[in-house]
């Protein structure tokens, strides 16, 4: 630790909790991998990678935050660049046994790259026009929502006729709709953003979002994996 | 971390993403190794070694880059000295069950040592003559291309009559032809090089090349391993 955690530092508190929770979640997913069957093992590997990648970045963010009272936006995007596509892979893994196509996965990944590239431009490179870039970025987010609520993912989940697949997909969808919506809120808190009037800390918002979306998302995949592995025994 | 990641530092961004992606890929290959059969396990071990070796070097390159704004060329060659021969081993592993010979592997390794030794001379020891050394180095690259497109590797892949082997070899070949061609482009960006006029950062080019060639290459091997293990069940 370069800096020091001071009493009353709530944001520092969430950086520590976030780091530890991500780390613990990774160990959980990697170890419990042996409890599930077949392709669900790969799903748990990916859940574990998502939280492990986050743990490493929380480690750096926490250090830089303790040392300087700030954490550069870049770390968030470095993290998302890797974890959001992995979440798209999770959707694909779940629908694959029922005829899910790789092209669906690439569509989801393309939408998320679009979302993240323009978000990064607005949040780091061109803040004065952040509202515009945010709107462009949101098109990618809407694209993802379309695919999972109305497009390919939805159709295959319905056609699967498999209760646990259907349940997993509809829970994960809810994460994307409600949980992921926390990030644009954080984005609008940057100086000059639509919500910059609120005295809410952007790191606090992102830390809460990550806990829900990375660990929660992974736990849903884990439950589906366990349910499914028991059903097929 | 010795230095600090500054907002808007795109190259620093790719060093971080590269490090994390290599690290995550290694864990993926090592864990998923248990999902495939027989000699494919060894192939995944090697895929994981390639990305793990890269992760360690990215760790050092990133640190030196953050501290000084530069990353010495030596790290690239240290990495390639180990990873390129391992990729030659991957080709051999795939054709071995169909009569691939160890001598083919040694031929590929000899060509890559030639390529790397003269590339290093031109990029680090004798920059004024970099064009000449680059040309000499390219002979090694052409030798590899010859072996995999027309020589031993091609012949055995065709004779194997095995669809997934054929598909893996032709995908991996494409990586060598198109993906590896990114490196000579980076090489020509050094001061005095043929492309030094372009305002393109050499580390950016090499970082992109590595992501494609190490992780992408490994994932192709992984897909072949999964397809093949299922077919033989
Ligand atoms: C729509 C939108 C955004 C959405 C970001 C999202 C949805 C990020 C999700 C991250 C996740 C799920 C990480 C978990 O591992 C940005 C880029 C803030 C820019 C403003 C518009
Ligand atoms: C042809 C040529 C080169 C080729 C380098 C290559 C092809 C490197 C491949 C590296 C890989 C695949 C690493 C991944 O792990 C050099 C040495 C730049 C020198 C200029 C001529």
Break the fold down into its secondary structure elements and pairings:
2 copies of one chain form a homodimer.
Chain A: H1 10-32, H2 39-68, H3 73-95, H4 102-125, H5 130-149, H6 152-160, H7 163-179, H8 182-187, H9 202-231
Helix pairs in contact in A: 1-2, 1-9, 2-3, 2-9, 3-4, 4-5, 5-7, 6-7, 7-9
The structure holds retinal (2 copies).
One retinal (RET) is lined by residues 50, 80, 83-84, 115-116, 119, 134, 137-138, 141, 180, 183-184, 187, 210, 213-214 of chain A.
| Total domains of chain A | 1
Q: What small molecules does this complex bind?
A: retinal
CATH homologous superfamily name of chain A? Answer: Rhodopsin 7-helix transmembrane proteins
Oligomeric category:
homodimer
CATH class of chain A: Mainly Alpha
- The parts of chain A where pLDDT drops under 50 for at least 5 residues are none
The Cα radius of gyration of chain A reads 18 Å
Structural class of chain A: mainly alpha
Largest interface, C-beta closer than 8 angstroms, per-chain residues: A-B, 27 and 21 residues
**Second-tier CATH architecture of chain A:** Up-down Bundle
Q: Helical segment tally of chain A?
A: 9
In the CATH hierarchy, the third-tier topology of chain A is known as Rhopdopsin 7-helix transmembrane proteins
Q: Provide the helix percentage of chain A.
A: over 70%
